[in-house]
Amino acid sequence: MSRWWQGRARLPRGEGPWAWLAAGSVTLSVALLALLLGLLAIRGLGHFWPGDIALVTLEDGRQLAGREVKEVPLPDGEGRERLYRTGNRELDGDIWAWVPVAAIETVSHPRELVSLERRHWGELVGRLVAWVPEQGPRLEGEAAWSALQSRLGTLERQREALERWREQTLSPLVRRLESGEADAAATDALQALQARLRERRAAMAGDRLILATADGRRLVQPVEEVLRATRPNAMGVLAKLGAWGRGAWRFLSEGPRAANTAGGVWPAIFGTVLLVMVMSLLVTPFGVLAAVYLNEVAHQGRLTRLVRIGVRNLAGVPSIVYGVFGLGVFVYGIGGRLDAWFFADTLPSPTFGTGGLLWASLTLALLTLPVVIVATEEGLARIPDRQREGALALGATRLEMLSRVVLPMATPAMLTGMILAVARAAGEVAPLMLVGVAKLAPQVPVDGDFPFLHLERKFMHLGYHIFDAAFHGGDVQAAMPLIYATALLLVLVILLLNLTAIFLRHHLRSRHGTLSQC
Question: Between the N and C ends of the chain, which has fewer C-beta atoms within 10 Å?
Fold first, then answer.
């Protein structure tokens, strides 16, 4: 027994079960994070992949065409059923079809099945019967498909030119009229431009497609309403990969369509990044000055301790409370006064007395101010007193000591506070719903008109875009892939913003290596 105990005594002493518990907690957290990102990536990026279209023949002879979404057990537990996305909403009233697996006779993937992405009514699935141009002979078969692809390319270029003309010529004139800066001549010019716009849109119409659904019904589709046409079953892997890349790019560069259930999220990306940048510019000076006062200037007594407790408690206040405060103080209070003083001619249409980018940024700045104060003050507290005393002993004033010695050494801690503030502000939705975010704002708050950055305008936000598509859409199942893609994009935007601040913090730490722990 004694030899066994001596052998045990010679073994290296471990850290006990707590080290393993801590390591297990870290491993579990990383695994859950990887699982979340993997789910978002698979479900979100898979939204742009052109999946094959199945032609399903049932035992009773009926046929349907669509993409298989999932297969689940029947409610009674006997057998299974499949969900197909069939499109053709204007014909069937829905784009989904549940089919019992036992009722399926055959499943095939004909190469001629066509998927049309349209501006209205969503996807159309069927066979292309004929191309009927406004002028010229009717085409069928491959000739019709080739003519359709050529015409869609021309239409896309015309739409882009029309959109540029509308943004550069028509929209500035409309804004001048809304602000009361234009005269009767400008009104006549606007009417002439609107007439030209209608003429250009009418010139794009005329060609027709004749399509047949899987069950034999015919449909006449104006080509001008079609955005893209694909035959997924006839595409190879490389062609599908190219289509996936183009779909992802359109998601990043275009605006939303169909009540935020289709199209892209570029205005939401721009609005989210711009909101975070303006918020950071507003919160950083006030947070740093407050931390410097509390740690370097104020007398360390009971009142200062109470202020610190109050600041830490503010970090736990629900975000919706800040939204109500911003709505009452910033929007109705300050914004209403600004309208009465400077924009009385435009009332009762408010300029600053309604939600906008400025009020949303100020609200989020208040929301994240305690985080910046606490992080900066902790960084200041880590700076040894000998650094301050040495600077004062060399003849520096107190202001020079703070600005040239203390603040540069505490900059990494300030950036840590900014990182935490950005991470919280970029994902907030509740306060933004009260102070400026919009369901649809395709025009970003930056343009070529003075003052170029329009802080009074409403904006879109990725977080609110997810909320709106998930809870206010008419078909949540159809919007789910877009929700996953937008959620993944929001995580990546926050990660990119944080990595930028982390890189700056690392650079400053390398310059002030004596206090790399700040």
Answer: N
Amino acid letter, 465: H
88's CB contacts (< 8 A; 6+ apart) are 95, 123, 124, 125, 126, 213, 219
CA distance 221 to 154: 17
Read out DSSP for 213-278? -TTS-EEEEEGGGEEEEE-GGG--HHHHHHHHHHHHHHHHHS-EETTTTEE--HHHHHHHHHHHHH
Instruction: With beta carbons less than 8 A apart as the criterion, state whether 490 and 467 touch.
Output: no
d(CA 355, CA 343): 16
The pLDDT assigned to 170 comes to: 65
Distance of CA 109 to the CA centre of its chain: 35
The rounded distance, in Å, linking the Cα atoms of 459 and 501 is 24
Residue 203 pLDDT > 80: no
pTM: 0.82
For domain 266-510, the CATH architecture is Orthogonal Bundle (1.10)
* Rounded CA Rg of the chain: 31
Position with higher pLDDT, 291 vs 412: 291
Distance, first Cα to last Cα, the chain: 52
- Sort 19 into a burial class: Cβ within 10 Å, 0-12 / 13-18 / 19+: exposed
**Could you give the dihedral angle defined by the CA atoms of residues 299, 305, 311 and 315, in that order, rounded to the nearest 10 degrees?**
150
User: Structural domain boundaries of the chain?
Assistant: 54-231, 266-510
- 3-class SS string, 399-462: HHHHHHHHHHHHHHHHHHHHHHHHHHHCCCCCCHHHHCECCCCCCCCECCCCCCECCCCCECCH
Q: What's the mean per-residue pLDDT of the chain?
A: 82
Euclidean distance between CA atoms 9 and 3, whole angstroms: 10
Q: CA 387, CA 394: separation in Å to the nearest integer?
A: 11
Model confidence over 1-46: pLDDT tens digits? Answer: 455 445 554 545 556 677 888 888 999 999 998 998 888 888 888 8
Strand, coil or helix: what is 235? coil
Task: Give SS3 for 99.
Answer: strand
Q: For the chain, how are helix, strand and coil distributed in percent, rounded to 5?
A: 60, 15, 25
Distance CA 169, CA 31 (A): 52
Percent of the chain surpassing pLDDT 70: 86
Angle 11-14-18 from CA coordinates, rounded to 5°:
155
Are 289 and 282 in contact by the 8 Å Cβ rule? The answer is no
Q: How many whole angstroms separate alpha carbon 67 and alpha carbon 213?
A: 14
* Nearest residue to 277 (alpha-carbon basis) of 103, 493, 129, 471: 493
- Residue 72 contacts residue 266 (beta carbons within 8 Å): no
Report in angstroms the alpha-carbon separations of 412 from 63, 290, 326.
65, 17, 30
